[in-house]
Inverse folding.
């Protein structure tokens, strides 16, 4: 028997389709929503629709933004000659939180992953190449994730960029700050050893 | 700097106000939503608003329903003389999943909790008393949670109902099925011992 009756069950069903929201969370959210003041539910709906309708790729770096050029690309105080290449807008947000990187970004929206059928044409790589040909780029910092696919994509990009003479770097792999050596996998330990610096 | 620009940040902010959704989940949901087909976002918004506007309390048992009388109270195949008293519609749904209870429910929407300022008048207790006076109730099964407040509320209800001569029972407290004795708290172990049955 449908315990809740049509509308509530439908709401729970729709919510449980969202990523990371299982049956129990969807129930909890649904009950929360039907107890919210009506104008708050209207606001949430409106924000969702507005975001869906108006957010597009930044013309330059392909992050998501509701402006044609995102705030970072539009900022004159950023160093537009240093481009950090990241997989997703979330990775970009993670680096932005450090508030130390003064360059700009380029968002690939994925990495090359033959197993999932994601090829060179499926990520914003052509756009990156066109951008560095058009702009006066000095350094390309490749900050794809340290996964097999992230590493392979980094290698691919560095080979592609080499002829242009632009300096290409890769963020360091090693032991995370506060990390306990005995809990860290062997590959990371080896990478940390290989990448050791003089102090 | 607002990395994402206005609309996306606003969406993340609104989503992170929902219960159980932290900053990271809100980000993930927001990115998912802006990548959903537009008509799906419209559907989700509509379902939320419909549910918020049309769901009210069932006239008889006070569960949430979009009908005046919920499907369970409206069903002639249920035993309307046995009422299970629960704290929330979710607890009711949990018992409904067992598909073994054939009676009907009464949803209190909370328990008496002086620490949180929730008194007798704040839960649907008056409505329960009126209901058993009006209806031909034979048994009241009190299935509030086994918390201090749940137990106190159960005691309070049983005292209130006693004069009417209606049989009042309480669901059993004990070791959960599959539970490992060594992992179970002492109070539960004692309760299980006190409540032992002849086999």
């Amino acid at each position: 028997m449908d315990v809740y009756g049509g509308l509530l069950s439908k709401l729970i069903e729709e919510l449980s389709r969202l990523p990371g929201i299982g049956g129990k969370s969807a129930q909890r959210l649904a009950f929360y929503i039907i107890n919210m003041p009506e104008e708050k539910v209207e606001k949430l709906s409106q924000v969702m629709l507005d975001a869906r309708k108006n957010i597009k790729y930044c013309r330059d770096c392909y992050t998501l933004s509701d402006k044609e050029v995102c705030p970072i690309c539009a900022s004159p105080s950023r160093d537009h000659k240093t481009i950090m290449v990241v997989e997703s807008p979330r990775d970009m947000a993670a680096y932005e939180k450090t508030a130390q990187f003064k360059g700009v970004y380029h968002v690939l929206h994925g990495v090359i992953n033959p197993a999932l059928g994601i090829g060179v044409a499926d990520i914003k790589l052509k756009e990156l190449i066109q951008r560095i040909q058009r702009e006066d780029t000095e350094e390309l910092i490749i900050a794809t994730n340290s996964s097999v696919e992230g590493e392979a994509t980094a290698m691919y990009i560095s080979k592609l960029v080499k002829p242009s003479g632009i300096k290409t770097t890769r963020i360091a792999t090693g032991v995370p700050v506060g990390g306990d050596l005995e809990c860290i996998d062997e590959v990371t330990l080896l990478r940390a050893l290989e990448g050791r610096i003089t102090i």
About this structure: The first helix of chain B runs from residue 6 to 15. DSSP finds eight helices and six strands in chain B. The beta strands of chain B are 56-57, 64-65, 79-86, 103-107, 139-142, 167-170.
